[in-house]
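Re: Re: token formats

Sure, here are both.
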Amino acid sequence: MRPVTRIHSRTAVLPDENIDTDRIIPARFLTTTTRTGLGKLCFHDWRYLPDGSDNPAFPLNQPAAKGCAIVVAGRNFGCGSSREHAPWALLDYGIQAVLCSEIADIFRNNALKNGLLAIVVSAAEQQWLLANPGIELTIDVQGQYIALPDGGRISFVLEPFARHCLLHGVDQLGYLLQNEKLIAHYEQQEQAA
């Protein structure tokens, strides 16, 4: 996992509420344990027409959304089944952060563990962000704030362990491996006691 310290991007908006994990990546594509290539399947049934061509009605297919790494979503993003493939698909698609007033807990935990920022903002902040698509934001993980174009800030809170892992580019296993010497020392002390 790469360190996530700061993200600067324009925003794309997915205003629909209750975008579940099956909408993010349909269950029929969960046959892989690798992350690579899932971006082309991200939002598959919403993003493509039955003939495989781009759906012009899908918000992220709009020219203004191209290259946006920050998505502002409608309430209750990531609800539904627990699948790590959902954050994998979003990351492989190029999305680095999702901002929403309500994000499903399991999705949020899976996202943060995989380097995708899933940030909860207030309902009023979400409505303002939804009403202003395409603005440039800077998300500062260390300072836990989103810098707005007018100089204002939106504060957010990350669980301290998740924040540490994001800033250092490690997952839970990587964190344990970073502390291997301390763990070995502790085990030696326990065996000697």
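Second one below.
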Amino acid sequence: MAEQISPTRSALLASKASLKTASGGADLLKRKRDALIGEFFALVKDALAAREQLSGVSKGAYTSLFSAKAWDSPEAVESLSLAGSGDYQIDMQIDNLYGVKVPRISVPERAAQANFSPINVGARTIQAATDFGGVLEAIVKVAATETKLRRIGEEIKKTSRRVNALEQVVIPGIQDDIRFIRSVLDQREREAGFTQKKIKAKIEAKAEAAREAQNAQSHGSAAD
């Protein structure tokens, strides 16, 4: 990169400004990455809790399902599952977390009982339907936390790549440019100083020769 830069003082000033900008950008990105890492680890606890909740309610729901099939017959349970509503509405909004778009999902409160008539339906089947409503709620919570976790993790990786690019490629390249420009300018100053000394020496030598010639001429006139 240094070979493509004109080694002038204006280029040196521009390179110094670029170095300041790149260093400041790296610092900002590192602060953003550190903040995202803090959010990531805080969210890991929520994600683990959501997974644990899903595991717990799933075990209870399947236990209720097996009991319902045993007591109310598989046909009755399957018939009820086909009659149930398939709609499940959630409220989802998008939050901006340090420039990262993450979903914020609000799980609606579900009814304590299943949304069908209990007539001709066994109590164990009703319980199984209610328990699986809890499973659906837990799945939504897991999806919300893990989606947010995944997006934050992706942004951490992206930010780390940018920091590495600045610190390992861009900033060293600018520093090389600055060293190159300074070395050329210093060399030019040394050459200019050497040239000035030579010119000064020549001028002084000519002046000295002129003085000697004048003195010699003055002595010759006095002798006459």
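The mean pLDDT is 80. The CA atoms of residues 40 and 150 lie 9 Å apart.
- S.
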